[in-house]
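Field reference: "sequence" (input) and "structure" (output). Example, 2-iminoacetate synthase ThiH:
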Amino acid sequence: MSFYEVVSGYKDFDFNGFLSSVNSERVRVILSNDKISDMDFLALLSPAAQGHLEHMAEKARRLSLNHFGKAVLLYAPIYISNYCINRCAYCGFNHDNSISRKRLTMEEIEQEAIELSKTGIRHVLLLTGESKKHSPADYIIEASRVLRRHFDSVTIEVSPLTLEEYVHAAKSGIDGVTVYQEAYDEEVYDEVHLSGPKKDYRFRLDTPERACRANMRSVNVGALLGLSDWRREAFMTGMHANYLQDKYPSTEISVSFPRIRPHAGVFEKVSGVSDIQLVQTILAMRLFMPHVSQNISTRETATFRDNLIPLGINKFSAGSCTEVGGYSGAQATEAQFEISDGRSVGDVCEAILARGYQPLFKNWMSI
């Protein structure tokens, strides 16, 4: 059984009917329980649950302190190539977009690493556009070896790899994989992925499991909120994380909540997700899976991110640049998307400390 069978089981489920049937009393009963079922999790995403956000926040804060303490792990992305052969309607790297394309050499990657490491960042996320011609697995692995000279943890967000490629990557020192399904709704997924390998819904959906099978230390999943109904996408994200954590308990599973940001090109069918709806998603996810890490990136504003710290977020990107070559500043390209929180790493640390939490630069290293 793969997660595709789980997704398929909900294909004809009446999400709107269920969500509209949830009343305030049912939410109160769920919040009084110690364990949250799948349907309880969905109920906490309902309109009725919005009247209980304060109670949800109190419980989420307590659970977060129990499992993660008052600590927020910092990391930063590093883009090394933006060549892409996919035509995704919502992405600045879309093959059809007229942006400058670049692939960094190993020497340029080292310069990026030197500049980023000066900020104190010890955990880095390596990103590329999805082109196996310009950024094949061997290029990514070679780049990760350069980055490991400067960082304690190197994780990747690149084209979905085969099991054999993930095994090779893990043995080479890459310790984590981030892959977003973008849209769990298979019809929406097909609609927004116009052409390219990424159009293969099943191959992408099974990617996190291949990474787990390859013994990656950490795997991060999520949906791009704004492509489809946020409640359904949030629910399937939670189900995906829960499936992986149950099946691969030795892998650290985490969840991200990216919302669509302005980018090169125009995507007009954005299904809006408000701040309060995103907060509800984060709270419901924490109550459903108290032990799963939750990550919020610089897509969100500084004030909003700071307010999420006590509510269950325990991973922050900081000092981020989404341009290829952006840290060293030498002929950087256009960004994949506009960031909202442009604070330096030092400013982010001060904000975390002001909330009574500890910014962590490192919580793991290979030996």
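The first helix runs from residue 3 to 9.
The chain has a mean pLDDT of 94.
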